[in-house]
Amino acid sequence: MSDVPAAKSRGDLVYELQDMGEWEDVDADIAISDPPFGLEFDGKASNYNRDRSRVVDGYVEWDTDEYCDKATKLLDTLARNTTETGQAIVFSGMDNSHLLHQTVLDHDTWRLEGKLYWAYNFAPYCKKRPAHNIYELFWMVKGDEWSYSNECSFDHCQEGEANLSLLDIKRNYLKEMPKYPTRLPLEVVGVLLEHFSEPGDKVFDPLAGSGSVGIGAAGLGREAVLGDLNENAKEVFESTVDALEDDVFPEHNTNHTSLSEF
């Protein structure tokens, strides 16, 4: 069982190395998680535009034949560690989104309330088909009460029509730093948190990787509890926190952009 208060943390930003199934009693208001793709991926392939020498080792993929079981375990973990009115957002790429969709529909606790889509500017080079650059985001609730605001302070709502289900957000690049094979842009996290949570809420991600969900949460005045199995992922998280200590959301007008307290 996880002892969250005793975990090594930066203020209200907690990161533990443990299996997702070990989490208990987090009592989060919202869970946001980007699980493994369920295919052979380590983020170092030559068709990705990145310096592979900076990509850390230890990324644990889910085998395709175990994807549904792993997804069910993830949904169980999120359900067990969120409040009665808690909600969850889980990312999925093209290859196994149909499996995640069915797993959500079959789950005893979660109800699929809607889907969002993130269009990004990064995809492997393809010769025989379009390069897929869309993530599906599965939004789940437990009942008829949840937190939602129909406007955020990012370009998603401030430029063009607000409150759309498509998030057209470019991946940002952190140069000269160790990299994790997968990393959510902080702006994606920020948009989701401003729409689906409130300042002071607790955010949970048991598959945190480089910790973008927690860093974005701390930058917007939320608590965060994170976990992963990869020691290298936690090192990337620590280096990212240090690099963004005073500027989590550059050029974004918010009063909660500093990590200097953590």
UniProtKB/TrEMBL annotation:
<keyword id="KW-0808">Transferase</keyword>
<dbReference type="InterPro" id="IPR029063">
    <property type="entry name" value="SAM-dependent_MTases_sf"/>
</dbReference>
<feature type="domain" description="DNA methylase N-4/N-6">
    <location>
        <begin position="29"/>
        <end position="237"/>
    </location>
</feature>
<dbReference type="InterPro" id="IPR002295">
    <property type="entry name" value="N4/N6-MTase_EcoPI_Mod-like"/>
</dbReference>
<keyword id="KW-0949">S-adenosyl-L-methionine</keyword>
<dbReference type="Pfam" id="PF01555">
    <property type="entry name" value="N6_N4_Mtase"/>
</dbReference>
<comment type="similarity">
    <text>Belongs to the N(4)/N(6)-methyltransferase family.</text>
</comment>
<dbReference type="InterPro" id="IPR002941">
    <property type="entry name" value="DNA_methylase_N4/N6"/>
</dbReference>
<dbReference type="InterPro" id="IPR002052">
    <property type="entry name" value="DNA_methylase_N6_adenine_CS"/>
</dbReference>
<dbReference type="GO" id="GO:0032259">
    <property type="term" value="P:methylation"/>
</dbReference>
<protein>
    <submittedName>
        <fullName>DNA methylase</fullName>
    </submittedName>
</protein>
<dbReference type="GO" id="GO:0008170">
    <property type="term" value="F:N-methyltransferase activity"/>
</dbReference>
<dbReference type="GO" id="GO:0003677">
    <property type="term" value="F:DNA binding"/>
</dbReference>
<keyword id="KW-0489">Methyltransferase</keyword>
